[in-house]
UniProtKB/TrEMBL annotation:
Pathway: Lipid metabolism; fatty acid beta-oxidation. GO terms for molecular function: isomerase activity. PANTHER family: DELTA(3,5)-DELTA(2,4)-DIENOYL-COA ISOMERASE, MITOCHONDRIAL, ENOYL-COA HYDRATASE. CDD domains: crotonase-like. The keyword Isomerase applies. Keywords: Fatty acid metabolism, Isomerase, Lipid metabolism. Pfam families: ECH_1. The keyword Protein biosynthesis does not apply. Belongs to the enoyl-CoA hydratase/isomerase family. This is Crotonase/enoyl-CoA hydratase family protein.
Length: 263
C-alpha cells in the first residue's frame, strides 16, 4: 500500500481514504493497487469491527483516469482481464469487490463525484451515505466500455433492471436525490463522513461475531453465481479495450468533440 490510500483508526473503526485529491481520486493502476492493498490489510484485522470508506479533497472518486488508459490497455493485452488474480476477481474488480467481501461492514461516505469505477467501488460498501450535492454516473459507456469493476454483481443488488440499463447505456450524471430514490445510496447527510463514522461506531458496539455472520449471510443469500458474472464482465471488457470505437470515444473526450463511430 502507498500514500495513495491512507488508513486511520478510532478504536475498532478504521477509516480508509482514497488520497489522490489533485485528480479527484481518479483511478490509475497505482491507485487501484493501493485500494486493493488497503482492503487486504483490513481483511485479517480482527480488532477492526467496521470500516468507513471515503475520498480526500471533497470527491469520493471521479472514476478512471483516462491518462492511464494506455497502461490499462497494455495490461489487457499482456495479462488479460480474464486472469483471476484476486480470488474470483481480476485486479480491477478487486478494487470494488474487496469491500463487498471484507468480513467487516463497510460504510461509504460520498461527497463530490462517484463516477464510473468510483461508483462501482462505492457499491462495494454495505451502506452508502452521500452529501446532498454528490453526483453519480455509470460512466463507462462514455469511453466505449462496460462497467467491469464488479458492477454487474454489485449494481444488480440495488437497481431495477430498467434503471440499470438506462444509467449504463446513457452514462448520464444523476444527483443524490435520484440516487436515494433508486436505492443507490442509503441516506443523505450534510456531513457524510461524520454520519458514516457514527454508524460505524454503532455497528462496532455490537458483537463482532454476530455482525460478521450477518454480513456473510446477507451477502451469500443476495447474490448467487457472482464468480460467473465477474468472468462475463471481464470477457466483455477485454473485447472492447483498444478497439477502434473505444479509442475514438477516448480521443473525442480528450479533444472535447462529438465522437465519430464506425458501425
Amino acid at each position: 500500500m502507498s500514500d495513495r490510500v491512507t488508513i486511520s483508526r478510532d478504536g475498532p473503526v478504521a477509516t480508509v481514504t482514497m488520497n489522490r485529491p489533485d485528480k479527484l481520486n481518479a483511478l490509475d493502476v497505482t491507485q487501484i493497487e493501493a485500494i486493493v492493498a488497503a482492503g487486504a490489510s483490513l481483511a485479517t484485522a480482527r480488532d477492526v469491527r467496521a470500516v468507513v470508506l471515503t475520498g480526500a479533497g471533497g470527491s469520493f472518486c471521479a472514476g478512471l483516469d483516462i491518462a492511464a488508459m494506455p497502461v490499462i490497455a497494455e495490461l489487457a493485452r499482456s495479462t488479460g482481464f480474464m486472469t483471476r488474480s484476486h480470488g474470483r476477481s481480476n485486479l480491477f474488480q478487486a478494487a470494488a469487490m474487496t469491500w463487498a467481501e471484507l468480513p467487516q461492514p463497510v460504510i461509504a461516505a460520498v461527497e463530490g463525484h462517484a463516477y464510473g469505477g468510483g461508483f462501482q467501488i462505492m457499491l462495494g460498501a454495505d451502506i452508502r451515505v452521500a452529501a446532498p450535492s454528490a453526483k453519480f454516473a455509470i460512466m463507462e459507456a462514455k469511453w466505449g466500455l462496460v462497467p467491469d469493476m464488479g458492477g454487474m454483481v454489485l449494481a444488480r443488488r440495488l437497481l431495477r433492471g430498467d434503471v440499470l440499463r438506462r444509467l449504463t447505456y446513457t452514462a448520464e450524471v444523476f444527483d443524490a436525490e435520484g440516487a436515494l430514490d433508486w436505492g443507490v445510496v442509503t441516506e443523505l447527510a450534510d456531513d457524510p463522513l461524520a454520519r458514516a463514522q457514527a454508524l460505524a461506531a454503532m455497528i462496532a458496539s455490537r458483537s463482532p461475531d454476530a455482525v460478521r455472520a450477518a454480513k456473510r449471510l446477507i451477502s451469500d443469500t443476495e447474490v448467487m453465481g457472482a464468480g460467473d458474472v465477474l468472468l462475463e464482465e471481464s470477457a466483455a471488457q477485454e473485447a472492447l479495450v483498444g478497439q477502434p470505437n473505444q479509442l475514438e470515444a477516448v480521443m473525442a473526450g480528450f479533444e472535447k468533440r462529438e465522437p465519430k463511430f464506425t458501425d
